[in-house]
Write a structure and sequence with these properties.
Helices cover 76% and strands 0% of the residues. The chain is mainly α and 279 residues long.
Length: 279
Amino acid sequence: MSQRPANAEPALVQAGILAVMAAFLGLVLILPMATVFYEALRKGLGPALEAVQNPDAVSAIKLTLITAAITVPFNAVFGVCAAWAVAKHEFPGKSFLITLIDLPFSVSPVVAGLIYVLIFGAQGWFGEWLIDHDIKIIFALPGIALATIFVTFPFVARELIPLMQEQGVDEEEAAVSLGASGLRTFWSVTAPNIRWGLLYGVLLCNARAMGEFGAVSVVSGHIRGLTNTMPLHVEILYNEYDFVGAFSVAALLCGLAIVTLALKTLLEILQPQTRRPGH
């Protein structure tokens, strides 16, 4: 007598599970996104394009892209170094380093922004020195970049650490035994093995960097046309009852998120074996 597979469920149960999943996704994901695009185009394409081309909106878009351009390379370098250290070496404080990497997942972004205000703000630890040397961090691009880096730096490292641990150190040890230097070993052996995981982590980091609101809201000062990123600009327009403008910029953010999702899916199709269990 053949045994029934452990994951085999009656057709009715499977249909019920799929129905619940579809209803949940439709309610919390598809319907809100559809509403964003509907509200953006409610008065036609012209007003939506005009809202996106507004000087304040253009400034917000540029600042968002610049922040992402600063954040992603920094976190990519940090993520590779942290994953290399954790997965390939044993050293005192290794568990503490892993805890620090996970810290932004447990700390509210608003708290993260407040920390930078307390350190670099006018009344902060270094505030007087920064004022004396005419250096602006809070309410300027450096503060926005720092806050965004804080909330996004786990993404690349957390993608690479399980991947490197699964690969082990056999190939690196073989390369070193053949006379390769540490740098040569990394570029010739380690880097090719982690390239897909690195790209995946970079995509996730970029998506979060462009959509970050809480930490950036605290350190930006909400200076219109100067320190507002796209999420902050959406909030201002919505509070001013400019719903078409708010939803138009939000639709652009959603479009960027959809592009990121498409690239993520493409990476999974091209190299699915690089994903860790549970993804």
